[in-house]
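Following the same procedure, backbone shapes were mapped to integers, yielding the entry below.
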Amino acid sequence: MRIHHIFIALALLAACKPEPAPTPEPDPKPDPVVPVEETPYLSAKADVKSVMEPGSLVTVAVKSNYGWAYSLSSELLEEKESTDSTLVLKSCLNRGADETVSVTIISDKDRSLTSSIDVKVKTGLLLDFEFQSDGTARDVSPNSYWIDTKAGVNMMTYYNEDAGRIAARFFSSLGGTLTDGFYKFEYNSNKSFQDALANGHSLEVLFMLGDEPGDVGEIKMFSSMEQGGTGFLVTDPSRGREITFLPNTTDAVGKSWRWCRSGVVPEVGQYYHVVGVWDKAAGEARIYVDGNLEAKVAAAGTYNPPYNATSRWFCVGGDPSGAQCQSAWNGDVVLARIYDAVLDDESAARLWEEAPHNIQSSPFRVTNVLYLTECEVKPGGDYIVAGDGFVTGDKIKFEGDEIVTCETLVEDGRAVATIPQNMKSGSYKLYAVRGAESAPLGSARLTVTDSPRPLHAPKAVAHRGFHGSGRPENSIAALKAAQDAGFYGSEMDLWITTDGVVYVNHDGVISGKTIQNCSSADLTSITLSNGEPLPTFRQYLEQAMKNLDTRLVIEIKQHSTAERSRACTTEMLRLVDEFGIGNKVDYISFSRDVCAQIAAAKPGTTVGYLTTTTDLAGLMAQGINCADFAYSDLFRNTALFDQAHSLGMTVNIWTVDSASDMMRAIGLGADFITTNRPDLLTDIVARFF
């Protein structure tokens, strides 16, 4: 019973126990939040549309909600720096045509999303000389300008294996004046070219000096600097013979040459890469040699072109002087370029890196070379090349339409080649051959004939006396020096005063006085630079009498009237007779009437007419027996040599100062050579004959 009650109580307790709280169901997991992606966007804008100067900056502003990359269609632009929102590009020198460079910004999120900008990189190359195997040159810049090749026997082109290109080799007498044998780019009528130079410019040249300059003045391989202009030179001894860049500008002080001297003295046979920069904006000039900045100088102001329009041309092989070339070069020019751009240090260094390196000069050298640059030769006959450096076994090779290697005898200081029987007339490049090696010597125009014109040593006439070294032109000292040196003749110029006194002077005006309008009393106070009084012809004759081995070559200057010229001639002839030296005098004049007057008074004496004419027979009929013409005319019309000789005339050529021109005149048969360098001509004759 008790147990029963216990179970009932327990059942009641169980019934009364509160139900446990239900276990709460866990909250359902929320759905993951999927972020909403932004639509990618991209835009880009450049601050400039075109550039030209190397190192110019192009800033591209980039707007994008994602990262980005870029691509460039050309290496003419390269990255300088970048941020998340900016790309800064730097331009490189463009030596080709203007080129549009595409700058493409690419979204990292969507590679198909791009933004492109076009930037024009303008050409910086104005002119680029490329030498050709036929001896010419052409401009390979985008401008394709015409380059005039002044072909001459004192230059040639040849393939330089180390450079991997054709180079020009010049054989001129250093510092001389030439009528041919150089390259000419004329820009006087090219305003855009002149404007480009005036806005700032750069020049590049790769050259080799071929001979020791000695005591000659400035020598120039690539320039346009006649009373203004720009270019390169090797300075004269007073400035240390340094490689120099020389633009001419006018600033607040005035017009001046800006001597940007490198401090580098070129060695013979070594190649140098040089860049000259005139930076108008910075007001300075800079020169780089083999990639290194060697000097910079102040060069503020405006650029001055050459003063004379006839000298506004660039010369490779010298420097313009009207139609001629002065300060002539001897050696190689491999590169010659002009840039319409102001190159910076990096660009100059790149040009050096891109230029040919480690160029070696010929494995052997023959220097002080002399040969007949234009002559007639006979099959089986001799052709002489004088020079220092020949050794036994060397041969002379002619390279033209055919290649001919001659049997050659090497003597003391020269090589004597035997002309082959089958050799043809033509223009040839000359080489010295030693085994498998060769060295360029020059070029020649040869006419092969069984009856070549005979060669003879020309007579040296000292132009206005043997002046120099303190001896003024047409001074008594210059006449005495010509006599002491033993030259054939000493040339002089005569004027007559109002009272009939004949004076010696080239120009008609001296110290502000016109000689033919003055009395002798008006001229007594005039002295020459060495302290001599202005000499009278009588005083000249007194000196002449002291050594009659040197003839007087008398020029009657053209006076204001024919009557005045005749009066001067008459008084001159009277004085010659008074001194009794008529057989020691030759006569010349630009006046045909004066020449005829002298020929009638002195039949059989040498009378030369200085004005070039083809009427040689007419001259001979008047007793004018010497064709006495300028070398620029005779070299253009070489037939005059043979025509004159066929009529029994002699030929004098004036004024010839370079060894190459002297050798050309000798080969053409000149009887006399009037020169400011009679000492050089005498040395040539001694070596060659």
About this structure: The first strand starts at residue 42 and ends at 46. Residues 1-13 have pLDDT under 50 and may be disordered. DSSP finds 13 helices and 49 strands in the chain. The CA atoms of residues 495 and 503 lie 5 Å apart.
